[in-house]
Write a structure and sequence with these properties.
There is one protein chain. By secondary structure, the chain is α/β, with parallel strands linked by helices. The chain is globular and about 80 Å long. The protein has three domains: 182 residues, Rossmann fold (3-Layer(aba) Sandwich); 158 residues, Rossmann fold (3-Layer(aba) Sandwich), CATH 3.40.50.1220; 186 residues, Thiamin diphosphate (ThDP)-binding fold, Pyr/PP domains (Rossmann fold), CATH 3.40.50. Helix 1 runs parallel beside helix 7. The structure holds adenosine-5'-diphosphate and magnesium ion.
């Protein structure tokens, strides 16, 4: 084979950059060090946005959130061994949550690693990553960089999205090849996440079942939010007239104040519904596995599920799925809408009336609680301020983590736009806060409000420096109740050590933001919180509000106390 060759050469660094840019990847989240320091510099020099973090886990979480928001794989770039391992937690979490992300790590020389001769940061990274993500690849030769990047992108975004690991040994970067051959080796991925149409008979089966329903319910999950088919989902929901429940990251897909939203009657509709349409939501622990008391106990046997999901193997994972609808969410809901002809009646009026009555009763009850103004603030009175701010600025992102801070915020703060709520997701993981906040601000330029339990904030708190360095419009609100769950636990062995769940009392979290040039404010009352928050969102200046919450408020493990084994033998 004869190839035209030019006299110019191209190296591995440039091929990696060109391969990513060719696929419209313009932002990298990472942390420089051996062997990727020069890569980060060259990326920036080549016009890419290189966002440098203080710890790889947060760069990884940022990449994952960027993937969820944009449908493009978010890229996290790390050094070898420890940096790689720090990023791996985020990669694994992204995979669990079905967020597209690529972790690219530099690694040591294969020859030394494979003979276990003890290289600097020696580790067989590919083998370690493999079971923890959707796919993993290693590129050894410059001419394979294009294929490696293309395979990583396709693996991350096609089918059920997830995390991909891409291993680049140090030597790869300095390899050179003919420039023209190098450019020709790069691949622009065509149709990375092709539509997957549901089978017509599956659509018919689902419609036939839906027609029999007396108490139908739609459940929207974060897969439905990710799919970016907001109009199609709205059409299906409104045309069907069926009440719907959003999972936490699907809040805002339709405004939470929509008349068909059944969030305030959650327990009732889950226990009562006879046919449930799952759209991009899994029947995992967050939905009590589709059975048991939550689902009405005895009612569970007669309940039927229609499940829309791109992953065929998700079906029957917890309970039988009577009508599986495998395909992309847009195509599936379009097909359902198209099939709802004149013979398709709206749900019985008794069901709608009852759901609506329960909702409005609970909404009134909650409004009473939100109106109270206890001193110090409790979760409700502080969250009422956040609720009002999101109502005023529905374009703002809400990042949310903690135990009680998470549970209360999920039910109190209404969302009005899709994909604006970013939270602890499928694992209920702590530590996503600052990474998610940075990603939302960087990829959208919109204001971000990060509502953080004081414990949750601690996992990623050092990234406030990153927020200040890039001058991002992020306002962190730390719900400070002096500890994990609450701040009043006592040591039970008589020593001077504090109890394992309590922190330094009256910690000055706002000073952390001040340390790097941002705004730090203490808020003792809803009025103070409102003032500081409104200013922060309006100015876009990096801000941390230390919101002082009653240290006796909060319950152990928040809403999931039942998952916390207790022996009952620890004396308080
Ligand atoms: P939630 O926690 O909000 O219930 P999950 O993460 O449990 O949501 O479920 C999301 C589901 O959505 C996953 O089963 C995933 O396979 C599916 N999914 C993600 N993207 C798409 C898509 N574009 N089309 C169809 N299903 C999708
Ligand atoms: Mg779920």
């Amino acid at each position: 084979m004869t190839t035209d060759t030019s006299n110019n050469t191209i190296d591995g660094f440039q091929l990696v950059i060109d391969a990513l840019k060719l696929n419209d990847i313009d932002t990298i989240f990472g942390l420089p060090g051996i062997p990727i320091t020069d890569l980060t510099r060259k990326m920036q020099a080549n016009g890419m946005r290189m966002i440098s973090f203080r710890h790889e886990q947060h760069a990884g979480n940022a990449a994952a959130a960027a993937g969820f928001i944009t449908q493009k794989p978010g890229i996290c770039l790390t050094v070898s061994a420890p940096g790689f391992l720090n990023g791996l937690t985020a990669l694994s979490n992204a995979t669990t949550n079905c967020f597209p992300m690529i972790l690219i790590s530099g690694s040591s020389e294969r020859e030394v690693v494979d003979l276990q001769q003890g290289d600097y940061e020696e580790m067989d990274q590919l083998a370690i990553a493999k079971p923890l993500c959707k796919a993993a690849f290693r590129v050894l030769h410059a001419e394979d960089i294009g294929v490696g990047v293309a395979r990583a992108i396709r693996s991350a975004v096609s089918g059920r999205p997830g995390g991909v690991y891409l291993d680049f040994p140090a030597k790869l970067f300095s390899q050179v090849m003919d420039e023209m051959e190098g450019q020709q080796s790069l691949i622009k991925v065509v149709d990375a996440a092709p539509r997957q149409l549901p089978a017509p008979e599956s659509v018919q089966r689902a419609l036939d079942l839906l027609k029999t329903a007396k108490k139908p319910l739609i459940l929207l999950g974060k897969g439905a939010a990710y799919a970016q088919v907001d109009k199609d989902i709205q059409t299906f929901v409104e045309q069907s007239g069926i009440p719907y429940l959003p999972m936490s990251m699907a809040k805002g897909l339709l405004p939470d104040t929509h008349e068909q939203c059944a969030s305030a009657a959650r327990s009732f509709v889950l226990a009562e519904a006879d046919v449930v349409v799952l759209i991009g939501a899994r029947l995992n622990w967050l939905l009590s596995h589709g059975k048991g008391k939550t689902w009405g106990g005895a009612n569970a046997a007669s309940r039927k599920f229609i499940q829309i999901d791109i992953a065929p193997t998700e079906m029957d994972s917890n309970v039988p799925i009577a009508a599986p609808l495998v395909g992309d969410i847009g195509s599936c809901v379009q097909a359902l809408s198209a099939g709802m002809d004149a013979s398709f009646a709206k749900p019985p009026a008794e069901w709608i009336t009852e759901v609506f009555a329960r909702s409005s009763k609970n909404i009134t009850k909650m409004a009473e609680k939100l109106k109270l103004n206890p001193s110090p603030m409790n979760f409700q009175s502080a969250l009422n301020v956040i609720k009002n701010q999101i109502e005023a600025r529905p374009d703002a992102y809400l990042v949310n983590e903690g135990a009680n801070t998470l549970d209360f915020a999920r039910s109190i703060v209404n969302m009005f736009e899709p994909r604006k709520r970013l939270d602890v997701g499928t694992w209920g993981i702590m530590g996503i806060g600052m990474g998610f906040a940075v990603a939302a601000a960087v990829v959208t330029g919109k204001p971000v409000i990060a509502v953080e339990g004081d414990s949750a904030f601690g996992f990623s708190g050092m990234e406030v420096e990153t927020i200040c360095r890039y001058n991002l419009p992020v306002c962190v609100v730390v719900f400070n109740n002096n500890g994990i769950y609450k701040g009043v636990d006592k040591n039970n062995n008589g020593s001077d050590d504090p109890a394992p769940t309590v922190f330094v009392k009256n910690a000055r979290y706002e000073m952390m933001m001040q340390a790097f040039g941002g705004v730090g404010v203490v808020a003792n009352t809803p009025a103070e919180l409102e003032k500081a928050l409104t200013e922060a969102v309006a100015s876009g200046r990096p801000t941390l509000i230390n919101a002082i919450i009653d240290e006796t408020a909060g319950t152990e493990s928040g809403r999931i106390t039942s998952l916390n084994p207790t022996s009952g033998t620890v004396k308080k």
